[in-house]
Amino acid sequence: MVEITAFEFASTPNIVFGCGAFAKLPSLIAEKGERVLLITGSSSLQKTGNLKRLTADLEEKVQSINLEEVSDEPSPELVNKLAEKYRSPAPSIIAAVGGGSVLDTGKAVSAMIPCEDSVMVYLEGVGEGKQHSGEKVPFIAVPTTSGTGSEATKNAVLSRVGENGFKKSLRHDNFVPDLALIDPELVQSCPPDITAASGMDAISQLLGAYVSTEASPLTDSLALKALEMAGNSYYLAVTEGKNLKARADMAYSALISGIVLANAGLGVVHGAASPLGGYYDIPHGVACGTLLPAAVNKNIELLRKEAREDRRTESYQFLEKFARAGALLNQEAELGRMDVEDQVEKYCDMLIDILQEWVEKLPISRLGEYSIREADLRKIAAETGCKNNPVSLSKEQIEDILRARL
């Protein structure tokens, strides 16, 4: 009898998913309160006319609407500014409609409006270690990209870019959005470069959580189906932006990536994305997407060395997981017998190949395009965490991963 490993599973938002679901948003907002703070990105909603329709419908249902636009990844200064601006009188509901940066901004502002102090004192690793009470303004998250999964997580990632920069989380169990509304139609206007980077971010989160040392049967089952959908639709979502099925598959995959990362953690890819995003003005999705093939290649290379003597080791079990992911991303759902060694070898190689093919064929930038140079790698590697990575990596091995995408 196989014993299921003990695990815990964090709460998820109430989820409304489906094409056309955006039309429900005004009524869902109005159910939460009369004073609305609406946070959006700087372009997509306006260009499509969705912002005009949303505010027109809201005006018929609520007492007041305040609108804020976010164009960059959120900083502590921005969060403090918005929290101070809307602290009195506080909104009864905050809705963020946009990419991961917009959602993280809304999440952080909802958490900081009830507080009198700076968000800096609560940030992990750079703050004062003060514990947030968890009190917040009710929050609705509506993603317009398919990547970060922020609509399903309890943390808001804030950054300060520069020589002494950082990228750190404001985190509390209560910060999970009260409602996540995912409408694949909203993502159809997302340009190919953002679609490519955000999609690889979602895949990196699904794969990272699946091979995490903290994975559970529940996170595995969620991640595997989402990886299958991503394998079917990622390339199409980038190259055929109006393909609604592909957009829906990736929107679902991104949502699930947020749920599984919140419960299983991630490895070296996101560990490196943190210092990269602090020191350089590189979008999070680009950092994760561009590093994923090299990181997977390095992990598999080291696991193969560790598993060479004994296939019963944990290392070989991780190889089997990488192989399953490789089959799914290559649209081969029927794996055959995964206890056959050549099958594992075959699909691990296929995983490396498909990820490399994607970053070469699709518009995903290299690190060098953001002024990152060979001389910077040691500093980045020194601050790269890989807590839940399936294999222990040296700083030199992390540098190898970074160097592969300069």
Written overview of the protein:
The radius of gyration is 21 Å and the shape is globular. It has 2 domains: 174 residues, Rossmann fold, CATH 3.40.50.1970; 212 residues, Dehydroquinate synthase-like, alpha domain (Up-down Bundle). The strands form 2 sheets. A 6-stranded parallel sheet has the order 1-8-5-4-2-3, sandwiched between helices. Strands 6-7 form a two-stranded antiparallel sheet. The chain is α/β, with parallel strands linked by helices. Helix content is 49%, strand content 11%. The protein has 14 helices and 8 strands. A hairpin with a 5-residue loop joins strand 6 and strand 7.
CATH fold-type name of the largest domain:
Dehydroquinate synthase-like, alpha domain
- The count of strands amounts to 8
What is the name of the CATH class of the largest domain? Mainly Alpha
Strand order of the largest sheet: 1-8-5-4-2-3
Helix content: 40-55%
Q: What would you call the shape?
A: globular
Q: CATH superfamily of the largest domain, please?
A: Dehydroquinate synthase-like - alpha domain
Helices and strands, in order, run as: EHEHHEHEHEEEEHHHHHHHHH
Global Rg:
21 Å
Q: Separation of termini? A: 48 Å
The tally of domains stands at: 2
Spans with pLDDT under 50 lasting ≥5 residues? Answer: none
Class per helix and strand makeup = alpha/beta
**What's the average pLDDT?**
94
Secondary structure tally, helices: 14
Strand content: 5-15%
Biggest beta sheet summary = 6 strands, parallel
